[in-house]
Design a protein that fits this description.
mainly alpha, 305 residues, 71% helix
């Protein structure tokens, strides 16, 4: 019960600090002091104090979408291993529920953008939907391969790779980290796929979809987006933290990996430019390639000997 409370606090609070570390890292590479790492939390509080404004052209779908988006992300988080290595809910094939619950929230973000009647938001929704159709199969290939290798059908199988793969374990883990990191950049709408700081509608994806959201609604959406990024970083941390560590060691190690990954994301955004839209798909297919390499190594490990 105590560890569950700790994990819940980490889930709800750390994403703000993670975004703050990313902003601080980008400011460092730009030669600036930057804002405080707590600034995303201050911005969230400011938004929660404001009233949401709705256009006359929108339907009730637009009004309920932010709550559904945020709730779906929180529900999906229950299946992800946290600092102690155990998810809140550990059931067979939880990664499938995780993916489709996130997909449910994304569906409402898409129809919410379309509900505004804006052609720009419709463009962003179209791009987001197209990217998801490529990302989802690659994620299932990677997680299904790990399930076949470890004979464990939950996210907790990420810690069992080394014990079931012999000499190929390190390579499989490395490829999985690359796969999940690319998915983090795509689902988190970060550079080089998208730029959360851009103001050019023709190149925006996620940000253009929430142009009409304000106040509490915008606060929930931004908080949910930060938590979604945190979830993929938590999956990467699960690959790196050995099983069986006591909480006094696993929790600081988990948080350290989360913030190191935040620095890496900030560094990537500072050293790379956003891809042209035609090249984004090539980058996304890189995730499919690494996932298929994982499948190849797992297949060889099971049937090659």
């Amino acid at each position: 019960m105590k560890t569950a409370v700790i994990n819940l606090i980490i889930l709800l609070i750390v994403p703000f600090l993670m975004i703050g570390v990313i902003k601080k890292t980008k400011a460092f590479w730009a030669g600036r002091k930057g804002v405080s790492v707590f600034q995303p939390f201050y911005d969230f509080i400011r938004l929660m104090k404001k009233e949401a404004v709705y256009s006359e052209t929108t339907s009730p779908v637009f009004q309920i979408a932010p709550v559904i988006i945020f709730s779906s992300i929180i529900f999906a988080a229950l299946f992800v291993p946290m600092s102690t290595g155990e998810p809140f809910i550990n059931i067979p094939f939880g990664f499938i529920i995780f993916s489709y619950v996130l997909g449910f929230g994304k569906f409402f973000s898409l129809i919410s953008a379309l509900d505004t009647g804006s052609s720009f938001e419709g463009m962003g929704a179209s791009r987001e939907a197209c990217f998801s159709t490529i990302v989802e199969p690659a994620f299932f290939i990677a997680m299904g391969s790990v399930a076949a290798l470890t004979k464990i059908d939950g996210f907790d199988n990420l810690k069992m790779i080394m014990g079931n793969s012999g000499t190929y374990g390190v390579l499989i883990i490395a490829l999985l980290i690359i796969t999940l990191f690319i998915m983090l950049l795509i689902e988190g709408c970060r550079v080089p796929v998208d730029d959360p700081a851009t103001h050019l509608e023709l190149t925006m994806i996620h940000e253009v979809m929430i142009l009409d959201n304000s106040g509490v609604d915008l606060g929930l959406i931004t908080w949910g987006a930060a938590i979604k990024m945190f979830l993929f970083e938590a999956l990467i941390a699960s690959l790196l933290i050995p099983a069986g560590l006591p909480s006094l060691i696993s929790i600081p190690l988990f948080l350290g990996i989360i913030f190191i990954l935040a620095v890496v994301v900030g560094t990537v955004e500072s050293t790379m430019a956003r891809f042209r839209m035609t090249h984004v798909f090539e980058f996304i297919f890189t995730m499919s390639i690494t996932a298929l390499l994982v499948l190849t190594l797992v297949t060889y490990g099971i049937y090659g000997n």
